[in-house]
UniProtKB/TrEMBL annotation:
It comes from Brevibacterium linens. This is AbgT putative transporter family protein. Pfam families: ABG_transport. The chain crosses the membrane at residues 40-63, 69-91, 103-122. Residues 121-144 are annotated as: Disordered. Keywords: Membrane, Transmembrane, Transmembrane helix.
Amino acid sequence: MKPTQTADTPQTDQQEKLPLVIRALNVIEVVGNKLPNPFWLFWILAAILAVLRFVLSLAGAGVEDPYRTFPPLITIMVVIMGVALAERAGLLPTAMKVSIARVPAGLIVFTVAFMGTISATGTSTSPAPSSWPSSSPSSPRACS
């Protein structure tokens, strides 16, 4: 009797032919896509750390307070939460679009390169390009 082929057999054969590095990256991608939003991931890990610290303190282990040994930590946490809020609200992508729209023509290449380096922060929640406002003759940076 001939074994029946299922719909996922060709995909499995293709995956087996891929190099080990690509297969490992595919696994990392699948696992990474299942992780929660970085904001919630931060708070989940902070809660786990707080519980672990409490349990260890009950066991007699001494833990040094990070807020006393590294005072800027509070400021860093507030800034991270502010950036996350601004990103979620759409402020960062909008600020980048406005910044590029008002650049002199001589600096456009430098500005696009600079915005490309910092765009990872502002584009993870930005709208798709098809929903961006289109350039029209009345817009400030319309091509002539």
